[in-house]
Fold these 4 entries.
Entry 1:
Amino acid sequence: MGIAAAKSKTTTSAQGELEQLLDTSAQSAARGALLGQMIDMGWQLLLAVLGPILLGVWVDGRTGRSPMFSLAGFTLAMVISSYLIYREYQSIQRSTESSKNTKGHA
């Protein structure tokens, strides 16, 4: 009986270590995914803000109507940025909901 108890204790200990490793691995994967999303969002916002503003400055220089097109570019940049942030928020909400649904069924 002592051997069976020792095997059971060893198995339980090994299972606990395995679960801990899997949790750590899942956390690392989640951090990596979050970092990737943050970098992607940063590039999108950078281009969404700089593109219209620089285009507006360039058009102002060509037409001599400073700051009309620069301000229009800035306004367009804010609209595009707001849309990108809203879209990312919706994506996070969907993934959170699907995560809750998956955990609820498990």
Entry 2:
Amino acid sequence: MFLGLLRARSSGAVSQQGQGLLKATLGLSNPFLSRGFKVRTAIKKFCSDCYMVRRKGRVYVYCKSNKKHKQRQG
């Protein structure tokens, strides 16, 4: 099933139903995807732009310059 979609995609002729299925399988349907948190027992700041926030009993690290630094203690 997916192989047929990929072949059709490479040839440039994909039906509307196939495009929706292809987007859903590749995770491209939501343009506002964000990077998830790394879950660790001991969190720390990686750079000078990282800052810690305590919300709902958990400690989070956010970073303004590098989104890969996001962490959650848990």
Entry 3:
Amino acid sequence: MLMSPTDGSGEEGVCEASHSDSIFSRLEELRFRLEQQMGFEKFIEAYNKIKAIHEDEDENMALGSSLVFSTLGTEHQHLYPNILHLVMADGAYQEDNDE
């Protein structure tokens, strides 16, 4: 049963906590699947390159993307959007926790 925030039960945080837990769970599941498909080493290498590109505003995006695609190889290039999603979600999570 979902409680409304004004019912005085103190349950309003439960829905919010389960929502963030489900987001975290989905992200961890995505990370796990990517590691399984690519292998841990290749996943980490691609993840770190994508993260570095997004953190460095001066980086040439086209050059950075070509480096990532060369790391992924043709076999895993289709996974780029999933890795990018994970990098961006991790970045948003860290920004929220830095405040």
Entry 4:
Amino acid sequence: MNETIKEKLKTLTTKPGVYLMRDRNGEIIYIGKAKNLKNRVSQYFRSSPKPKKVQTMVNNIADFDYFITMSELDALALESNLIKKHQPFYNILLKDGKAFPYIRINIKEEFPSIEIVRKVKKNDGEKYFGPYFAGIDPRELLKTISMAFKIRTCKTKINGNAKRECLNFSLGLCLGPCTGRANKEKYAEEIKKVIRFLSGNDEEIEEILRKKMEVASELQNFERAIELRECLKMVEKLKQRVVANLPKDVDKDVFAFHTDGLSGVITVMVIRGGKILGVTNYQQTDAELEESETLFNFLCQYYSNVIVPHEIIVSHQINQELLCGFLNKKVHIISNPIAINSTLLKMAKTNAVEYLEKSLEKEKANYNSTLGALTLLKDKLGLKSLPKRIECYDISHISGTNKVASMVVFTNGKADKKQYRKFKIKTVEGSNDFACLKEALTRRLKRLIDKNGESFKEKPDLLIIDGGKGQLSSCYEILQDFGLEHEIEMVSLAKRIEEVFLPNSHIPIILKYASAELKLLQRVRDEAHRFAITFHRELRTKSQTKSILEEINGLGKTKIDALLKAFGTTENIAKASVEELMLVKGIHKNLAHSIHKFLNEEH
């Protein structure tokens, strides 16, 4: 905790409000609300145990601001608006929540259209169905509706004067109101059927689709019959989500919170028309809050993005009056459910418990293969510090042609592909891997010393050389030439029996087979090899392409480069017409004919 934070903590008020956490660049990384600003903000900087994500966030806090509000309800509203405006990195929930798709029927239109939307406009008078989670694709649902009811999915302005029919009309997927042929009363009846289907009535659409499939089969229109069969499968998938003993017109959400004291999960079960549309899980990091307060905060954020049903079932007692005030809607909130509601909550709780267990296992496995492996590597190799940034180099060529070097970077034990770099070897003649490696490393370290370019400004903690003691000694001399041997550590990994060599020792270290630290070294080494080979293949393909084009009279380097820039490959150039070739700078009519003829005649 820095002095700025210490001083600000002393001035905090006990009133409600909103706080904004900032990093050292002044960027807002987290926004929260508090009933008591002093208590809530101070909690972050106490020495009590915290989940890793919270601790990471706290480590990045350099300053904070706060706004005092008149009430907790005002704080909720301000927090929601500020999160939407700034989208802080650690306020993950709203970034995920806004992506939920809905099906909207624009019932205010004379001939209502149906579409998929991701943003709900509350109180706009239109009909929304959803949200839809993984397992139900709203696009497939929309196609099923079109096949059964012929409702328009276009955004065309309907005036009945369209000059020609649209594709959906000709395919029998729309009644064609744009052409003036649709009967308004019949169209309205079809819309009612769609609403009944999306509200939970499956029998009607199932019968319609089955009859259409039988007709298509009789007419030997097997392609249409197969499409209708797929639509029936979609309806069957929805039927399987029906909750026993639950009326078809029931809409409710179920929220179950489970925590182990540090980490927590909230499972959300969405029920619409008596069917479970989806179950999703959210990891929570407000470990120091009461469970009921964590759930309450979640509900406020969650419902800023989705439509509020008439009934909400929750696993903990919450402030119902405050939540209804924030949502500006009277909602029936059940915290002690009975009968079927109790069964639904148990299902959600089971999901939450299982998800948290799996998440913690995955987190542990991830730690063991990354930061845990780095810690073991540091200890086993006797490194001075934890190698948070590792760089590894490899060479690729065929008989000394198209020589390249790769540089891969692992940050905190994970591949950091944005930091990868490629080198074309410029000074080495023939097949000399030692010399190629020395050139690549020299160029990299020179740019570090000269502070030449953003891509090479980060100093590695550890350099890994693919090879034995000889390669290591050769490369370590370069490190010494730049005076970096005390700042950057270097090891080599020999492939034969995976020996690890250190600069000042002739005796290799043999890491335990299949150990996390050895697997990490192998991952880094193998990734450098893969990246080098990929770059070499790209260069070789480009070189071969150029050599073919160089056989054409009148084509020099500049024109070849222009052609490749325009078309990408020799195959694409061959497919291009004379007129298309003439659009490339420097390619006149006669030359275009020559190129086209040369690439399309048999050699």
